[in-house]
Records
---
Amino acid sequence: MGCASSTNNEEPAAQEQGSSVPPKKKGKKQVKILLLGTGQSGKTTIGKQLKILHQNGFTPEEIMHYRDLIYKNILDECILISDYCSHMNIEISEESKVCKISNSMEMFDII
């Protein structure tokens, strides 16, 4: 009736015995995430960012693996741009050429 709330007059010990809710645990909480999306939409990137933020980052082995992958991607894109310029008859001046592919590989310690 009205805006009043009812209370249970049982003793707190009796309330705890009948409670089926387990006590809260302190510590890390596990959360599962389902990421949906088409290929190349960034699902893996989100997972990697969460790992960096919440699991102390990457191991040294993972760092070396990703480093090599990133350098390879950079070189692949440089080759792609160079091929596109040749195909479209776009001249690249000597001043704008930083280095050739072999020099790039030495710069990135890929050889």
Note: Residues 60-87 form the longest helix (28 residues).
---
Amino acid sequence: MSNSKTLAERLASWLVGLYPYAWRERYGNELAALLADCPPSWRDCLDIALGALDAHLIETVAWKPLCLEAMRRKRHPPAGGPFFPLP
């Protein structure tokens, strides 16, 4: 008896592995179980891969500067209040 993984299992493992470590720690088992119950189509694979890219961007590039700027503004709102800055 062979203990090698099926193609669907390898694909599911690869797709889950695309996500950042913190995401996999929190949601990886759920995604793996979902993919085991319902093997993904090529469109699903593309969607999952794009979701992984989005997760990496949010974690590292796109949101951190914006979040830091929002936190800075919250601590030090512009003169006139947050919605009506004075010129």
Note: The chain is about 70% helix and 0% strand.
